[in-house]
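#lab-general

N.A. 3:47 PM
ok so I finally got the sequence cleaned up, no stray characters, all 209 residues accounted for. can someone with queue access submit it? mine expired

B.Y. 3:52 PM
send it over

N.A. 3:53 PM
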Amino acid sequence: MTVISARRAPVLLAAALLTAGCGLGAELDREADPERTGAHATTGADVAAAPPATPPLEPPTATAPEGCPATGVRVTTGMVNVAMGLRAMPVTITNCGTGEQRVDGYPDVRVRDVDRKPMDVTVLKGTGPIADLQDPGPHPVTLKPGESARSVFAWRYSAVDPATQRGSGVYVEIAPAPGVARQTVLPEGGLDVGETGLLGTTAWEKVTD
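B.Y. 4:20 PM
back already:
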């Protein structure tokens, strides 16, 4: 079994993200009706930043099928859900290889602008400072061929120049874990996170719908 390990310290966005507790649905309701919104305190637990227990292990030994990345995992992004200044987007990894894959933790992310230059965006483990979304936290997820896991990216709108796209994360490089080759995706509309914004992520969770 191929193992991809990540740092310690998910679906259609309108479905799996709206389960248990105060999920995205409740957060969007508060955005649309500010008078119902109370002050929200965040804690350090929302932004886990523990170092990895072990570095990622070896890449898949089996040859990936044609059209499947060498890692045996394909990264895709879904539609960006917007409400006032809050943004949320599902990110899915799918085992397109021939063996099992295992993830445990948060995505490894780098954001680039329209010129492919790295942006000074702080990527968080958790979404607490941005929105109160359910985060399952790091836990082992085993994916058989064809199975998927999902994370949710959340951010607040920041100034973006519509003419030059300055401030928009046009190219987003995502890997299942640090040390694994990132794949570049172009989310529809880009990430209007601003040049010095915050990008929250939830831990990988197996897709069961």
